[in-house]
């Protein structure tokens, strides 16, 4: 349906003398929805202000005309047919239709039509009362939600691991399609406690006991055990699960991942066997050769060191993977929650409601992007592929950008700054330094109560430039300060707060690649101050040149 203005030379009849115009205005001008009154010839007798605003027309451009003056012939005929049916039967009707507005946009309207009567000199005359509901935003939100659900389902189907969901009592209620590959059984057979029958008999008692204990206490579940197919072939799998709690701390769901670690387990067992044989061989050689040369002794020491280093790396990797899995579940839960709220909303969706849900989803996505950027940066640092490209730049401009970005995300905190004492130019890698202070500001917000103030101060001290970030948060235990910049380390005071333990290590490495240093001062329960010191010599020399 295309609603547009008509020229004065249209074929419409002259303006119709509307009976009782004041009565119609009193009854319908302040109606909650756009409202139109038509006579038995489908001519417009009255249109309220909301309808005029919606169509972009003035009353004198509409009154006395018919739908033929505004709509394509087929649409006008359809409208007249609906009007005639309401007038003939007296039965109200509710029609949903798409309308092409004058600006070319397509809008979805739900039109409610009913018959009424108005007194005239010739007696009562039938009229059609038309009330219009604009469903455009609601239908658009439904399309977005369907697309989001299809995207989520595609991710589940393509995930290399097998996601699953259980209720608060530990009964499986949903499992990814990867279950069929793992067990050779239909997905329905895993529901409830049906997955028990796929476990190796030697593993079943411990797995069931550990799972029931986790369900009873709400503790994390993490086990490696064997799952068999209908043909009796078993493979090793790692199964991890974490609870989702409601506002009162009660477990309402369990979310888990089933990972095929068969090849890894075989490799680990082969490694253990190899280590055992290696030690036996070493002991036998020691019995035969009492005095070894310095070279042989050094090789043995180095071998032990490498073995210990490998164990430490494996332990760090397991801890990091578990931590990252938890970190990704939180923003995914936020996105899922917002989507469910949109799904459950039956009434017309307000712009504020959509803005709130979109803000939640945007914040969760930003958190996931931040996690991925930290992981990639940590990998580049470990491989030594991060290059610092310094150029004369405004450090204060970089800091203001970081502050503005964080203030937009964390509106519950106040971030003040004093950067007037910073020099105009500083030899820095802008992107790397932005990562440094974005991380420090993110930590300051994360570990500070809502409504608290975060202070950023910058100044020049001789041939150095210093910038401090101070919060009034939970603080750090004094025993944890020496280890704060180590990879994957998290202070005890941060227990229960989301984090990966790699951000401050990246910050320290970037600052040191700039030839600078970072220090921290903290009092438990009172707040923390991080101070970054960068050399100013390079900038002085460049300006002098």
From TrEMBL:
Keyword Kinase: yes
Enzyme Commission code(s) on record: 2.7.13.3
Ranges of residues in domain Histidine kinase: 323-538
Pfam families attached to this UniProt entry: HATPase_c, HisKA, PAS_3, PAS_4
Domain PAS: residue ranges: 20-90, 148-218
Reactions the enzyme catalyzes: ATP + protein L-histidine = ADP + protein N-phospho-L-histidine
Region of interest (Disordered), residue spans: 1-20
Span of domain PAC: 221-273
EC class (word): transferase
UniProt keyword annotation of Hydrolase present: no
GO MF annotation: an example: kinase activity
Cited InterPro entries: HATPase_C_sf, HATPase_dom, His_kinase_dom, HisK_dim/P_dom, HisK_dim/P_sf, PAS, PAS-assoc_C, PAS-like_dom_sf
PROSITE patterns documented for this protein: HIS_KIN, PAC, PAS
UniProtKB keywords: Coiled coil, Kinase, Phosphoprotein, Transferase
Coiled-coil blocks: 264-319
NCBIfam families named in the record: sensory_box (TIGR00229)
Protein name (database record): histidine kinase
Upper taxonomic lineage: Bacteria, Pseudomonadati, Pseudomonadota, Alphaproteobacteria, Hyphomicrobiales
């Amino acid at each position: 349906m295309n609603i547009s203005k008509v020229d004065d030379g249209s074929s419409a009849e002259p303006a119709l003398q509307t009976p009782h115009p004041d009565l119609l205005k009193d009854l319908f001008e302040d109606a909650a929805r756009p409202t139109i009154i038509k006579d038995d010839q489908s001519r417009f007798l009255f249109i309220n202000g909301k309808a005029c605003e919606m169509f972009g027309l003035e009353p004198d451009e509409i009154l006395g005309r018919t739908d033929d003056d505004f709509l394509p012939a087929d649409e006008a005929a359809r409208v007249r047919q609906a009007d005639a049916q309401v007038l003939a039967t007296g039965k109200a009707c509710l029609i949903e239709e798409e309308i092409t507005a004058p600006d070319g946009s397509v809008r979805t309207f739900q039109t409610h039509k009913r018959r009424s009567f108005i007194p005239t000199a010739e007696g009562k005359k039938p009229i059609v009362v038309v009330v219009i509901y604009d469903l455009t935003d609601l239908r658009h939100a439904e399309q977005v939600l369907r697309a989001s659900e299809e995207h989520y389902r595609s991710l589940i189907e393509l995930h290399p691991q097998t996601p699953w969901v259980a209720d608060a009592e530990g009964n499986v209620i949903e499992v990814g399609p990867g279950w069929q590959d793992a067990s050779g059984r239909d997905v329905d057979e895993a529901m409830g406690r049906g997955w028990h029958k796929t476990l190796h008999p030697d593993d079943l008692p411990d797995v069931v006991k550990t799972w029931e204990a986790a369900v009873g206490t709400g503790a994390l579940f993490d086990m490696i055990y064997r799952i068999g197919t209908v043909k009796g072939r078993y493979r090793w799998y790692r199964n991890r699960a974490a609870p989702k709690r409601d506002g009162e701390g009660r477990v309402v769901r369990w979310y888990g991942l089933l990972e095929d670690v068969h090849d890894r387990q075989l490799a680990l067992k082969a490694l253990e066997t190899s280590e055992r044989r290696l030690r036996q061989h070493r002991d036998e050689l020691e019995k035969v050769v009492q005095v070894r040369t310095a070279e042989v002794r050094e090789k043995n020491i180095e071998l032990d060191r490498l073995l210990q280093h490998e164990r430490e790396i494996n332990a760090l990797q397991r801890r990091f993977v578990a931590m990252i899995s938890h970190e990704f579940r939180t923003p995914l839960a936020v996105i899922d929650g917002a989507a469910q709220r949109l799904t459950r909303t039956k009434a017309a969706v307000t712009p504020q409601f959509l803005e709130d849900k979109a803000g939640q989803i945007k914040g969760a996505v930003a958190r996931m992007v931040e996690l991925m950027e930290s992981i990639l940066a940590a990998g580049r640092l470990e491989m030594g592929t991060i290059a610092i490209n310094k150029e004369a730049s405004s450090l204060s401009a970089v800091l203001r950008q970081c502050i503005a970005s964080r203030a937009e995300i964390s509106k519950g905190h106040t971030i003040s700054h004093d950067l007037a004492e910073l020099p105009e130019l500083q030899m820095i890698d802008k992107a790397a330094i932005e990562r440094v202070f974005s991380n420090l500001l993110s930590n300051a917000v994360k570990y500070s109560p809502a409504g608290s103030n975060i202070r950023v101060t910058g100044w020049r001290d001789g041939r150095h430039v210093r910038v401090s970030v101070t919060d009034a948060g939970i603080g750090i235990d004094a025993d944890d300060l020496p280890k704060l910049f180590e990879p994957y380390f998290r202070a005890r005071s941060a227990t229960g707060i989301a984090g990966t333990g790699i951000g401050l290590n990246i910050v320290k490495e970037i600052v040191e690649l700039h030839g600078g240093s970072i220090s921290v001062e903290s009092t438990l329960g009172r707040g923390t101050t991080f101070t970054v010191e960068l050399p100013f010599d390079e900038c002085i020399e460049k300006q002098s040149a």
